[in-house]
Amino acid sequence: MDDDMEGGNLGPYQDRPRTFPNMRTKPYTPLVFRIFMRLNVRVIFVLLLLGFGAIFYIGASTSPVIVFVFSVCIISFLFSIYLTKWVLKKDEGPPEMVEISDAIRDGAEGFFRTQYGSISRMAFLLAFVILVIYLFRSTTPQQESSGLGRSTSAYITVAAFLLGALCSGIAGYVGMWVSVRANVRVSSAARRSAREALQIAVRAGGFSAIVVVGMAVIGVAILYSTFYVWLGVDSPGSMKVTDLPLLLVGYGFGASFVALFAQLGGGIYTKAADVGADLVGKVEQGIPEDDPRNPAVIADLVGDNVGDCAARGADLFESIAAEIISAMILGGTMAQRCKIEDPSGFILFPLVVHSFDLVISSIGIISIRGTRDTGKLLLWKIQ
């Protein structure tokens, strides 16, 4: 075999027809989405209307800033739905591209189901450990002054942890879902125009980014407003508003927990598949690099989607959530040290900043066009 490699004899493998079997199986859809798909459209509309009504009622009971944040996030979600429909309308190219794309999509969904199934079980186990620790730990001076017992603090932290882990998992799924569907459409558009391919890529990535950032912002805002109303913050004998962001730490911890394992699992998987594809394909069998006849190449591309897209979405969600919560804690502490009467503006400032991020990013995504403006181009040439 060494003589064949040195002499450049690739063997009969290269003479095989360049066909790729259709490996597409039944598509995987998370349980939450399957439940919603089985419901009637009117029922879903009523549930969403009630949910939005409850969210805005809690926000109005907290601060007008929270209402503004909720409004921007919901409008951003509607804009992301528009981006999704726009991207999915684009063609997927010839049947050969679709076959390979289906195999990559099937592998990515299978890997996501296995990986996040294990992460979810570990998250519930860790949530139980956190509950036990908080139930048996001594109360802090802030909890004693606000009347917040150990059991209440434990359940609040566990609920925030599970919500952060759930949102981080959804962010990862959104990143994987859009990547495996946009890749083939970008490749198909690149055969016609580089500008069209750029527009599809930006709008597909913009959908994932808007959903991830919007979920991070609205998740923290919902927790903040819910705890504000439920605990009666700033009422006589209750918790101060400057201590409220400390209860949101579990949200960031849950997001970090999922993002950590998603990054490790996806990164190790894609690197192992990449090395295996190079060793077995190019070195032993003489198959060209990134040839779809090599199963390790498909595994490498699956790893790119679940590691660089799904795990990146979870990591981005974790970074933004932790950044918002830490800035809220710092703002509340600074306002308390400076003896400011109404510290809510300092605490809610990070949410407002990221809400404007969603607005500016949406404008930037829309500004990229797939074709040149011929009128402006002609005027520029005349000048």
From TrEMBL:
Superkingdom field: Eukaryota
A GO MF term: diphosphate hydrolysis-driven proton transmembrane transporter activity
Pfam families: H_PPase (PF03030)
KW rRNA-binding (keyword) present: no
Subcellular location, principal: membrane
E.C. designation(s): 7.1.3.1
UniProt subcellular location: Endomembrane system
Keyword set includes Thylakoid: no
Region (Disordered), start-end ranges: 1-20
CC annotations in GO: endomembrane system
Keywords: Ion transport, Magnesium, Membrane, Translocase, Transmembrane, Transmembrane helix, Transport
Mode of membrane association: Multi-pass membrane protein
Main EC class the enzyme belongs to: translocase
Parts of the chain that traverse the membrane: 39-59, 65-83, 119-136, 156-180, 200-224, 244-262, 346-368
Protein name: H(+)-exporting diphosphatase
Organism expressing this protein natively: Ilex paraguariensis (yerba mate)
